[in-house]
Amino acid sequence: MLEQTLAFEGFRVVCACNGKEALARAHEQRPGVILLDLMMPVMSGYEFRQNQQKDPSLADIPIVCISGTYNAEARARDIAAAACFTKPLQLDALIATIRAMLPRE
Question: Architecture of domain 2-101 in CATH?
Fold first, then answer.
């Protein structure tokens, strides 16, 4: 649903099922913003963020944390996320945040 909503709003959306796949896709596609769930299989959002921060080609991409976990805001601060949204999502606020983070063309 989120992928379809963002695409309808005019964003180019690239999805990954886990953190390992997300790292590979970030290298291939170089996104302007990464929406990151902390709880993912194979490689968690925390592990993804550690790898992203170590990689000079990806380190500057802002992270928007999306989580249904307990104390999500504190966990997002722990990984230096630029923003955090808890589930259920406030789509209008999420879309506004993404638009604000993307470079102007």
Answer: 3-Layer(aba) Sandwich (3.40)
